[in-house]
């Protein structure tokens, strides 16, 4: 009877160690998963900030291009008017 009890105790101990090792592995996998999720969230936050910065820069350059285009139009019209006035005199 005693050898059978020892075998069963050894089997229970072995199973308990296996469960404990599995729990450690799952905890480590969970930790790695959370780290990956946090890294992804940080990357998305950084990407959002970068896109907002690029959108602001694009809007600034578009405004400058429109201003430059308007000033070129005014300059061309003024030169055309001066040329016309100098020819007609």
Describe, in short, the structure shown:
The chain has 89 residues and is an all-alpha fold. Helices cover 98% and strands 0% of the residues.
Poorly predicted tracts of residues: none
CA radius of gyration: 38 Å
Give me the number of helical elements.
1
Order of helices and strands: H
Structural class category:
mainly alpha
Major beta-sheet overview: none
End-to-end Cα distance: 131 Å
Counting DSSP E segments of at least 2 residues, the number of strands comes to 0
Helix percent band: over 70%
Strand content: under 5%
Averaged pLDDT: 92
Shape: rod-shaped
Q: Describe it for me?
A:
The chain has one helix at 2-88. The protein is built from 1 helix and no strands. By secondary structure, the protein is mainly α. Helices cover 98% and strands 0% of the residues. The mean pLDDT is 92.
């Amino acid at each position: 009877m005693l050898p059978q009890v020892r075998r069963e105790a050894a089997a229970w101990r072995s199973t308990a160690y296996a469960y404990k090792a599995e729990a450690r592995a799952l905890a480590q996998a969970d930790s790695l998963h959370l780290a990956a999720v946090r890294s992804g969230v940080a990357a998305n936050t950084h990407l959002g900030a970068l896109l907002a910065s690029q959108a602001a820069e694009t809007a600034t350059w578009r405004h400058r291009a429109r201003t430059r285009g308007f000033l070129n139009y005014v300059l061309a019209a003024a030169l055309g008017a001066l040329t016309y006035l100098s020819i007609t005199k």
